[in-house]
Amino acid sequence: MAKILVVDDDRNLTRVLIEQTRRMGHHAMVASTMRDGVENARLGDFDLVLLDVQMPDGNGLDFLPTFKEVASRPEVIIVTGKGDPAGAAKAIKSGAWCYIEKPHVTKDLNLHMARALQYRAEKNRAARGPVVLKREMIIGSSIKINHCLDQLAQAAMSDVSVLITGETGTGKELFARAIHANSRRSAKNFVVVDCASLPETLIESTLFGHEKGAFTGADRAMTGLVKQADGGTLFLDEVGELPIQTQKAFLRVLQEHSYRPVGGCDELTSDFRLVAATNRDLEKQVSVSAFRKDLLFRLKASVIHLPPLKKRLEDLRSLTGYFVSRLCERYGQEKKEFGVDFVATLSAYDWPGNVRELAQTLEHAFSAAFHSPTLYANHLPDHIRILQAQTAVQQSKTSLQACQIPSDALSLPAWRQFRDSYEKEYLQRLLAQTKGNVSAASRVADLSRTHLYQLLAKHDLQG
Ligand SMILES: Nc1ncnc2c1ncn2[C@@H]1O[C@H](COP(=O)(O)OP(=O)(O)OP(=O)(O)O)[C@@H](O)[C@H]1O
Ligand SMILES: [Mg+2]
Question: How remote is the CA of residue 218 from the centroid of ligand 2, in Å?
Answer without folding.
Answer: 30
